[in-house]
Backbone:
């Protein structure tokens, strides 16, 4: 099925988004010359150009990390990939996608397990079965014992992990993760990174991972796109062809981290 987002939203005719079509079947993501400006009535000027001329791609099953300074349009890019916004111009080819938002958006009236099982429930899965599947992942992510806790009874890091389980259980071919490990302490973060790698090895998906942490990007990604300050443009795309699991102390990881930081600095100076 191919869905032109512009037909739903009235975006300019040049903007295109293809979802689940033949070209997207292998899970590939291809973004070409993407631009998006927000109307901003609260600002004196015409609005905010969030993204300008963004082109990037990932093959099916690859993990593409996106790094860039705050406000450069990373969340906007993920929302475009998931079809939650229509591009102003440019094109997106992507399979059906799910977004793990920067804020966890758990429902306060559901317990942790029901929150995690939500995507399965919406897909028509019986509650008991959905909770069973979520419970397996709770065990792996160190959330066991908190299945019946409400979101306000969980720490920030725990809430993030519940949201992460919910994202994985959606079964979508493309996972768009917006700072998924941002609220975690360094040790839990490293554990989650290893766990994500194992989960993807077991059940490959295409992943677009937004992170502020350049080291995390190099440790996890097949490819890293570095964005400039707003309006976000791709200033570098680095291929990370290193064996997994990778260690932050590995000289090859340190060298690539240096290249990504250099690209970030150059983008900021341009
Ligand atoms: N709904 C909106 N309406 C108007 N402007 C917006 C909206 N969402 C984002 N923006 C603006 O677009 C720009 C990009 O925002 P975005 O949230 O995509 O950045 P980001 O790279 O994800 O930042 P951060 O790293 O801080 O999360 C910012 O200048 C922001 O003010
Ligand atoms: Mg953001």
Residues:
């Amino acid at each position: 099925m191919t869905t032109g987002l512009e037909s739903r939203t009235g975006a300019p005719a040049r903007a295109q988004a293809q979802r689940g079509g033949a070209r997207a079947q292998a899970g590939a993501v291809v973004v070409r010359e993407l631009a998006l400006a927000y109307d901003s009535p609260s600002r004196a000027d015409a609005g905010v150009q969030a993204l300008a001329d963004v082109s990037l791609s990932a093959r099916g099953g690859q993990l593409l990390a996106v790094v860039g300074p705050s406000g450069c349009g990373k969340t906007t890019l993920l929302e475009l990939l998931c079809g939650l916004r229509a591009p102003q111009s440019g094109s997106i080819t992507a399979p059906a996608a799910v977004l793990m938002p920067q804020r966890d958006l758990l429902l306060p009236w559901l317990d942790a397990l029901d929150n995690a099982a939500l995507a399965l429930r919406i897909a028509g899965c019986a509650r008991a079965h959905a909770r069973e599947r979520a419970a397996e992942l709770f065990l792996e992510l160190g959330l066991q014992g908190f299945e019946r806790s409400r979101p306000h009874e969980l720490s920030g890091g725990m809430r993030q992990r519940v949201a992460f389980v919910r994202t994985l259980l959606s079964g979508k071919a493309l996972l768009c993760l917006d700072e998924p490990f941002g609220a975690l302490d360094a040790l839990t973060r490293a554990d989650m990174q290893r766990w994500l790698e194992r989960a993807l090895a077991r059940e490959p998906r295409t992943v677009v991972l937004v992170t502020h942490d350049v080291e995390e990007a190099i440790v996890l990604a097949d490819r890293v796109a570095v964005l400039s300050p707003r309006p976000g443009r791709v200033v570098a795309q680095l291929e990370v062809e290193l064996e997994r699991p990778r260690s932050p102390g590995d000289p090859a990881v340190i060298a690539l981290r240096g290249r990504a930081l250099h690209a970030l600095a150059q983008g900021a100076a341009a």
About this structure: The longest strand covers residues 47-58. The chain has two domains: 5-96+173-269, 104-171. Residues 107 and 115 are 7 Å apart (CA to CA). Strands lie at 16-19, 29-39, 47-58, 63-67, 89-94, 97-100, 174-178, 206-210, 223-227, 234-239.
